[in-house]
Every structure is written in C-alpha cells, then in structure tokens.
Write a structure and sequence with these properties.
single chain, alpha/beta, twelve-stranded mixed beta sheet, 4 helices, 44% strand, globular
C-alpha cells in the first residue's frame, strides 16, 4: 500500500513540475496562433461508466534537441471527464512528448475497474530521447511494476501536427481481470482495523470484513489504441 501511495505522490509531483514550464492548452486556440493550430480530439469507444483522465505533454522538437534532449514541455493538457470525447487546440509543429489515458469505473463498496495507456512520441517513459521507430508507431502489452498491472502502451516517432483535425481513438476492453495484490492492499486497512477493534468499537467491522473478503475487488482492464495505424507513418 505504501508503494502505491508513494507512486501516486511521485506522479502528481512529476506532472506538476512539468506543467510549470508549459502553457495549458484549451478548447480555443492560444492567442496569437488562431490561424496556425489543429483541433485535437480524444475519442473513447466503449467507455461504459468509466471516468477518463488525460495527461498530454509536448515539447517542440527543435527546443528539445537544442537543450541536450532534456524534456521541458512547451504545452500541456490535463483533464478528467465522463463523456466519449474531449477536444482541445494544439499549435502546428513537430513535437516530442506523451499522452496518458486513465480509466476508472467504481461501484460503491463492490469493485473498481481501472486501466492505463501511455503513448510516447520520440521519448521513452524516462523522458529520454529514443531513436526513430521503423514502423512509425506500434502498440505493445507489458507488465508495469510501478503500478502492478499488465498494460498496453504505444511507442511512436516524433508527433507532427500539420493538419486541421487530429483524432486519437481508444477503447476500453470488455475483458477485465482481478488484480489480487491490489485487492488485498486496498481492503487490508479496513479489514485489519475492524478485526483488531471489534464490532463494539467499530459497528461496521463485520460488514467490512465480509465485504473485503467476499465482495470488493480491484480489477484491471486494457485500453487499446484503436487508430494507431493513422500515426504509423
């Protein structure tokens, strides 16, 4: 549990630090670039009841290469929503960076289903420069020890924005599976508190024990990059 909390704190601080050097993107174009921008859409197919969170950070390729390939994003977009689509404007240019998609579907005292997908453009997960990918863009499945789950991720070449409309399409898989370790870690505080304090001091003790053992589950799902072939150039 401690490792998960630490990871959340580190991720929050990392995104917070990155955004300090960047301009936040909005649905309307940045002032002064009204005729030199693209409408970027993130579409979520098969969203169900999931809440979607997006983190999009990009840096102009030229400034990245001039500054010893140190990732200091020029622009970012961060939002959470419960719809099938979200739009924002991005200036024309060639960029390195990443796009993170998170999904979370909660049922009260029952289960939580979550997914994660990160697309890297010209950099790896450590924000370091990577060589151009022959295929242009590909998706792979791997195990992430940082968040203790199997995830899909994508590796792409530098991101060129030179047309009016750009669409990313993702879908949430119908097939999810129990993450045993996360289930135990998430229910253990309530179960242990109830077990040690007893029903007299904690009236919901028996309920929490039964719920933790037989009811609540933390489940993982995969997020797929549906139109990845549109970026494999």
């Amino acid at each position: 549990m401690k490792n998960i909390i630490t990871l959340i704190i580190i991720s929050f601080l990392s995104f917070n630090c990155l955004s300090r050097t960047a301009i936040k993107l909005e649905e309307k174009p940045i002032k002064g670039l009204e005729t030199n921008f693209a409408n970027l859409s993130i579409v979520i197919n098969n969203r169900k009841d999931s809440r979607i969170s997006i983190e999009f950070y990009i840096q102009e390729l030229e400034s990245f290469e001039k500054n010893n390939n140190k990732f200091l994003p020029n622009f970012y977009f961060s939002e959470s929503f419960k719809s099938d689509r979200i739009n924002f404007s991005v200036p024309y240019g060639r960029y390195v960076g990443f796009l993170s998609i998170r999904s979370l579907d909660n049922a009260y005292f029952n289960r939580t289903i979550s997914g994660f997908h990160q697309v890297h453009f010209g950099i790896n997960k450590n924000f370091e420069k990577r060589n151009n990918i022959t295929e242009g863009c590909y998706q792979l499945k791997n195990y992430s020890y940082e968040i203790d789950r199997i995830i899909n991720s994508s590796e792409c070449n530098n991101f060129k924005i030179d047309k009016n409309d750009i669409n990313f399409e993702f879908s949430i898989s119908d097939n999810d599976q129990i993450n045993t370790m996360r289930t135990i870690l998430l229910t253990w505080p309530s179960i242990s508190y109830a077990a040690f304090h007893g029903p007299q001091q904690y009236p919901y003790a028996v309920f929490l024990i039964m719920q933790g053992v037989f009811g609540f589950t933390a489940r993982d799902t995969l997020i797929n990059f549906d139109n990845i072939n549109n970026f494999a150039k």
